[in-house]
């Protein structure tokens, strides 16, 4: 295994995720129960679940699951899909397959840490930062200027984690065209796709725009099923898919059979599950708007364009690291401070924190947050 630095987010979560009373920084939509998911099964999938034999499964993934996944793409078919144990395995193996010491990659920041640290362990990497002063806009000209003759990969994530940013559709199409024209693989992390506040801003899936592009997705976020640990890559390059399959032989080999059947049920009901997640977020956002409006001297807040997370600015004199540490220790309210999202590639804001907007009933957490702020009012800068 390539030597990698500590995964800051997971290290932080290992201390607090299951001990804090209020997990207010969750990156997923509210999870379904097993009963809720099985209630959506058709007769064939219910029989498959009840008669399931717990043997090995196909490395590419259950064929029926791959067909259900492919139904969400315009051009990518079942043969273009390979399943993994969550999005993290897919991302890790894709970078291992695509990048070598002589290559160069461009990575948009801020991001999920592995999107940066895995390429950095393999090759030269240039970061291109979303601009917080322009509502996290992507400067496409800056990204193009970062490309080299040896650039093999451009990695993006929209809706973005942690900012919730969605770039314009035209800009995304132009990025895909430029990558295709130069023989570069566009690696598009699309795990929050479908959770845009305005459905008209939903980006096309990269795998439908180019045969070289890779679309990463997972059941964890928009579908609210992180416990299944089922992710996938859609890519219309057969040689690349073969390389991914052979890389998977060294990690999980195949997915868990129960998870594949349950994921199949979920994907067949994708529209209903995404609508459920969207409704939860829509109901939650006014509560977050009201909370932050009550403390304008301490926070600068705007709702995310899409996804389950936002990245507000903290204005207190104590700084965001001390603020988040005191909040979880004293009030049991968990947030992720800016240090979790620091980049080795680009300057990143040091006064932000990630907050989750996708879990049902954030009221008790916001009440605890309000009580703590009222009692321990930090001084504004």
Automatic annotation (TrEMBL):
GO molecular function: transaminase activity
Domain of life of the organism encoding this protein: Bacteria
Database matches in Pfam families: Aminotran_1_2 (PF00155)
Record keyword Nuclease present: no
Entry keyword Transferase: yes
InterPro entries documented for this protein: Aminotransferase_I/II_large (IPR004839), PyrdxlP-dep_Trfase (IPR015424), PyrdxlP-dep_Trfase_major (IPR015421), PyrdxlP-dep_Trfase_small (IPR015422)
Keywords: Aminotransferase, Transferase
Entry-linked CDD domains: AAT_like
Domain Aminotransferase class I/classII large: 53-357
Name of the protein in question: Pyridoxal phosphate-dependent aminotransferase
């Amino acid at each position: 295994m390539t030597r990698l630095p500590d995964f800051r987010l997971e290290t932080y979560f290992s201390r607090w995720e299951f001990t804090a009373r209020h997990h207010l920084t969750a990156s997923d939509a509210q999870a379904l129960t097993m009963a809720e998911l099985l209630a959506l099964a058709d007769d064939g999938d219910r029989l498959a679940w009840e008669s399931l034999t717990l043997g090995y499964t196909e490395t590419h993934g259950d064929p029926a699951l791959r067909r259900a996944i492919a139904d969400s793409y315009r051009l990518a078919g079942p043969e273009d899909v390979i399943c993994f144990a969550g999005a993290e395995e897919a991302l890790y193996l894709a970078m291992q397959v695509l990048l070598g010491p002589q290559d160069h990659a461009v990575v948009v920041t801020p991001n999920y840490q592995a999107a940066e640290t895995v390429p950095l362990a393999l090759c030269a990497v240039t970061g291109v930062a979303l601009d917080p002063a322009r509502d996290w806009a992507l400067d496409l000209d800056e990204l193009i200027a970062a490309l080299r003759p040896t650039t093999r990969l451009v990695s993006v994530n929209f809706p973005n984690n942690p900012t919730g940013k969605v770039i314009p559709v035209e800009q995304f199409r132009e990025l895909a065209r430029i990558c295709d024209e130069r023989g570069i693989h566009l690696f598009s992390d699309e795990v929050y796709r479908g959770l845009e506040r305005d459905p008209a801003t939903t980006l096309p899936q990269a795998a439908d725009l180019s045969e070289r592009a890779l679309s990463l997705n997972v059941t964890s976020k928009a579908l609210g099923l992180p416990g299944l640990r089922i992710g996938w890559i859609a890519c219309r390059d057969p040689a690349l898919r073969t390389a991914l399959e052979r890389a998977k032989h060294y990690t999980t080999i195949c997915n868990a059979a129960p998870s594949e059947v349950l994921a199949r049920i979920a994907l067949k009901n994708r529209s209903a599950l995404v609508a459920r997640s969207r409704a939860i977020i829509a109901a939650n956002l006014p509560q977050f708007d009201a909370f932050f409006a009550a403390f304008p001297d301490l926070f600068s807040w705007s709702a995310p364009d899409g996804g389950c997370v936002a990245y507000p600015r903290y204005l207190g004199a104590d700084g965001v690291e001390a603020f988040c540490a005191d909040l979880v220790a004293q009030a049991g309210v968990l947030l992720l401070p800016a240090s979790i999202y620091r980049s080795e590639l680009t300057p990143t804001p040091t006064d932000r924190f990630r907050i989750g907007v996708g879990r049902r009933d954030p009221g008790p957490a916001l009440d605890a947050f309000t009580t703590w702020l009222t009692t321990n009012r930090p001084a504004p800068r």
